[in-house]
């Protein structure tokens, strides 16, 4: 009897060991992917909030740009371009579309143009703002080219992105079975960079055009669709949901980005916000990067006490580089999905 009990104990132990070694293949792969994503975040990188400004009447901030001491902000369900002074106080609203039905404070989801990105460009010696819709629905395939010759009285030109976005939507390298969802844009060195937001655990994609060719086609001056390059990046995860690009800004030979994590796999519907990151893609990777060849540097946005900021960062502007290596003063705007917005002033240290 003693021998049989020992044998039974041995068999039970052997079964437990075998069970622990035979976890499902998908689980093992998920764990590996999560580890690789986390490894891409530099543990020395920090993004700490220094100042928060709340806007009761700027809904769903989604894009931001700086020019001559002013800050321009778009809301993805607003018909206005908002102008802030250097103290971040709203000083003017510029109508982009008909505002007659804006009594509710937000354009309804089915009708909004979803202006998610904005950048400053130079054309023929003039400075312009270029605003792009996300492309995730027919109404969201509009662009605005806004002259800043008179910074507080800009001239607004509305253009269609339908042909450009149709081509991107059909490119499996860009959408990979999902909806087009352009959330970031940045111009510099004759190039125009668009950031496609990954959903859930989807891929985040950088699409790069020649700026002159893009604008020429957008304005109907060229019939040949502009060529573009595609680079794919994997970002961090929170609770199994991957971060998705949400804003872009070129500064100091780096393509800075914001990325947020939502518990959703739908480009139209919002989900619970789990956190946001600030980071950059190195210059070499901007030209041609992949998840394997480019080591992205990013930091989770936190409060001064170290707790994670649970808001959705939607756009980024780099104000200046500090004396410390890879340390920057950064502005970000956030969308609370309730019709309000915040501006965050961040001290960002991105160690390498």
Folded structure, characterized:
The chain is of the alpha+beta class. It has one domain: Apyrase (Neuraminidase, 6 Propeller). It has five helices and 22 strands. It has helices spanning 2-21, 25-39, 162-169, 211-218, 283-287; strands at residues 46-55, 61-67, 70-75, 80-84, 90-95, 115-123, 126-133, 142-147, 155-160, 182-188, 191-196, 204-210, 228-233, 237-238, 241-242, 244-251, 254-262, 273-282, 297-302, 312-321, 327-335, 341-349. The strands form five sheets. It has an eight-stranded mixed sheet with strand order 16-17-18-19-1-22-21-20. A hairpin with a 7-residue loop joins strand 8 and strand 9. It starts with a helix and ends with a strand. 42% of the residues are buried. Mean pLDDT is 83; it is low at 1-40 and 289-293.
Write the layout of secondary structure elements.
Layout: H1 2-21, H2 25-39, E1 46-55, E2 61-67, E3 70-75, E4 80-84, E5 90-95, E6 115-123, E7 126-133, E8 142-147, E9 155-160, H3 162-169, E10 182-188, E11 191-196, E12 204-210, H4 211-218, E13 228-233, E14 237-238, E15 241-242, E16 244-251, E17 254-262, E18 273-282, H5 283-287, E19 297-302, E20 312-321, E21 327-335, E22 341-349
Parallel strand pairs: 1-19
Antiparallel strand pairs: 1-22, 2-3, 3-4, 4-5, 6-7, 7-8, 8-9, 10-11, 11-12, 12-13, 14-15, 16-17, 17-18, 18-19, 20-21, 21-22
């Amino acid at each position: 009897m003693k021998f049989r009990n020992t044998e039974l104990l041995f068999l039970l132990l052997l079964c437990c060991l075998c069970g622990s070694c035979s976890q499902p293949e998908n689980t093992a792969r998920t764990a590996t992917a999560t580890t690789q994503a986390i490894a891409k975040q530099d543990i020395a990188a920090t993004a700490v909030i220094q100042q928060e400004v709340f806007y009761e009447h700027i809904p769903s901030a989604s894009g931001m740009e700086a020019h001559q001491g002013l800050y321009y902000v778009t809301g993805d369900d607003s018909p206005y371009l908002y102008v802030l002074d250097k103290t971040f106080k709203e000083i003017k609203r510029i109508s982009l579309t008909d505002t007659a039905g804006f009594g509710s404070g937000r354009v309804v989801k089915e009708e909004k143009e979803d202006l998610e990105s904005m950048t400053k460009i130079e054309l023929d010696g003039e400075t312009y703002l270029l605003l792009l819709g996300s492309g995730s629905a027919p109404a969201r395939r509009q662009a605005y080219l806004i002259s800043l010759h008179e910074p507080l009285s800009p001239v607004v030109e509305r253009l269609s992105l339908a042909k450009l976005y149709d081509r991107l939507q059909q490119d499996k390298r860009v959408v990979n079975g999902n909806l087009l969802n352009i959330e970031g844009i940045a111009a510099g060195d004759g190039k125009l960079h668009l950031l496609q937001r990954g959903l859930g655990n989807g891929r985040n994609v950088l699409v790069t055009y020649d700026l002159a060719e893009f604008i020429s086609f957008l304005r109907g001056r060229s019939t040949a669709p502009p060529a573009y390059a595609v680079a794919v990046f994997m970002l961090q995860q929170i609770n199994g949901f991957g971060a998705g690009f949400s804003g872009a800004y070129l500064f100091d030979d780096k393509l800075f980005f914001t990325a947020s994590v939502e518990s959703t796999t739908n480009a139209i519907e919002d989900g619970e916000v789990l956190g946001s990151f600030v980071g950059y893609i190195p210059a070499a990777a901007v030209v041609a990067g992949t998840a394997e060849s480019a080591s992205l540097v990013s930091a989770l946005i936190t409060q001064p006490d170290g707790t994670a900021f649970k808001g959705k960062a939607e756009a980024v502007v780099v104000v200046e580089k500090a004396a410390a290596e890879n340390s920057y003063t950064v502005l970000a705007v956030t969308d609370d999905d309730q019709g309000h917005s915040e501006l965050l002033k961040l001290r960002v240290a991105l160690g390498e």
